[in-house]
Amino acid sequence: MHPEHDSHPEYPEPDSHSEHDSHPEHPEPDWITTPLTADLLRGALDLERTEHGLLPHRLPARARAQNTSPQLAMAEAQPSGVRLVFRTAATAIELDTLRTKRDYAGFPPRPDGLYDLLVDGVPAGQAAGTDGNVLTVDLATWAGEVTPGPVGTVRFTGLPARDKDVEIWLPHNETTELVALRTDAPVVPAPDRGRRVWLHHGSSISHGSDAASPTAIWPAIAALRGGTELVNLGFGGSAMLDPFTARAMRDTPADLISVKTGINLVNQDAMHLRTFGPAVHGFLDTIRDGHPDTPLLLVSPIHCAIHEDTPGPTAPDRDEMSKGRMVFAAMGDPAQTAAGKLTLTVIREELSRIVEQRAADDPNLHYLDGLDLYGARDAAAHPLPDNVHPDAATHRHIGARFHELAFGDGGPFATT
């Protein structure tokens, strides 16, 4: 693997700056409760008032009303890239949330979602979610059953007693209702620091898949290195060129835009070549209606051996499931590509062709080959554990590589 796999900044040990429970040897602070409002949140496109508090959404209400997919409904309500951002002199912070954790029937419980704390842009603490609801999914039918649970609390202490910008990045893979924010000093919204806003859309790989924590998903790594404000529309299983997603992007203020597409269209066998090209054009046309001159980067899929030359659909490997392992297999027939079935190789060729065609009239449209982010050589050194999703180390690699290629000298997102 490349050296950048180990370049993600380390968080302090949880007992140095964050904990789940109060320490009885320390007196409780005089807590100030600050109302949770939109001006304290970044990365969400909508906030829903629930019986418990606020539920951040990454698609606006109009888009959600047009969606009929339970998978997308779950994914867009998981706050990947969403963070609380405020300015305070507080040394202690408590955040009450009601999470919904997702587990799979017959498999060990998934790790608890993490909250990452940044102070003036530097990692300063990390805490795991507690309590909350559990959604148990049956992989044979994809039916889910929710076991209700109580509101939980994450606490960060030992913070420097000075005015500072504080960011709490919410778990990227757990639905999180925000219930209450308490601090031992007043809170005000953080000022606009003049950073460019980067709006990104992609699949579960952009959503975060098996990344280590919310700031360790590859878009967050690239955004933090690039000094940008991330709006992450990476939706697990749901990068399907949906028109309502394109309209949401059209209507969202942004200085930089990227669209990474392909893998979901293959693994759900959602389109053929005949419909894929026009759908890409339409998606880009809609974005351009609201952002005619914004740098727009179209990114093709990373290497995925099972679908490079084999169409979808993708399904769990039953033999591996019987051993308690989640591994995916391609179910399509390579011979079907002649009839228009999509593979990742076909998609990369078509995306490259579309950008070349459109760039004649759109000089701010660019193409990035996903194999430059994670190619066959990377896969040989560090395979995708379940044949589809990157692990934590590969997220770090992709994030560093994207930053280099997109934000670096000569890249489409480079500062002038």
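Above is the first protein from milestone M3; the second protein from the same milestone is given next.
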Amino acid sequence: MAASAAARTIIENCAIATVDANDTEYASGYVVVAGNRIESIGAGKAPEGLENVVRRIDGTGHLVTPGLVNTHHHFYQWITRGMATDHNLFNWLVALYPTWARIDEPMVKAAAQGSLAMMARGGVTTAMDHHYVFPKGSGDLSGAVIGAASDMGVRFTLARGSMDRSEKDGGLPPDFAVETLEGALAATEETVRKHHDASFDAMTQVAVAPCSPFSVSTELMKQGAELARRLGVRLHTHGSETVEEEQFCKELFGMGPTEYFESTGWLGSDVWMAHCVHMNDSDIAAFARTGTGVAHCPSSNARLAAGIARVPDMLKAGVPVGLGVDGTASNESGELHTELRNALLINRLGAHREAALGARQALRLGTYGGAQVLGRADQIGSLEAGKLADLVMWKVDGLGHSTIADPVTAIVFGAAAPVTLSLVNGKPVVEDNHLVTVDEDAIARDARSESQRLARIVAQG
């Protein structure tokens, strides 16, 4: 539809952080949305005489930013929150795999709805899920997750995960929790062919995503990379999360994680890794040289005592970095907007101290950085004419923020800001801090019921 014929929404009188290449900001400006695109943006009032204006919003007391982009998550963990709270990564996985291996389609759907609702209500317009647990006979788990995202109205990337290295092979998952090499590859290809949309305004995309070096065979890593590139989709996995993982790789493969990834075809501009906490200078240089992206998950890294990722050094080297919630069994809040603050604060505990990250760098990680990592920086992640209309209006004149003069500082350093409006593809998903596309109370009830059912199944053995 031509812009002149599209229905228009105008937001005026708001502060704007565009997160474009020049970090352009307006103390008081406007955004015009036409259909599913940003038509224009600037200082002052919107242009006069625009046709087909269906909604005009007074943004006084608000900051408008690009929608937040989540680059790493495990939705199914929503129904196993609050467990193994004092464990490191490996012990936490061993404690929870027997429970996760009993999930089924209704559980996964309820968990996905809960995870998506919590993120969307907090300003996420593009979500991502790395689902890698597929018990035999559990139903269409990928379809359940994609359906939940579609119902919510958020833009979505499914990273179709897999595991084929179980306890009998020296891995961590129980033997009954993994797929075969051939089964994992076939199911992943089927998911890509059925659900991936490569168009500019795609609402659903799929990536190839074997889980991690300690749960996946070398052959699955190699063939997974070949499959992704044959199908023209992105690649995702966990990498360099803990010191134990580094030791595991050296003992099993005779090399560190980054060397192992490079040997299996897993470095490149079409790849992003979750965590990347334990990276030396040569690892960071390899990521920068190849354009490999990073999903930084500060809360989960702290929750599992994994360490502090070297985000300032990655950014200086030119590594694409976005933010991730990670699974809600290792980040029980399930929110991405809190990761803006936590990324800034936790990185200031590292070597760079107060110079590690600033408020605008944190906002960029959560918006444009995430779009880069997901391969969609030309479509989302900044407010620019021609880009998709994924944006958020944050209320910054209330009790929690009214005495912080700079609105970007307010939403990063301050309390979690209420979301007055969130648009995805030009359509409202959140109004006045509540989801408008789904019933939040029903989602909470369903998730609680499925969590209790899972607990009963596990208790019965």
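Note on the second protein: The radius of gyration is 21 Å.
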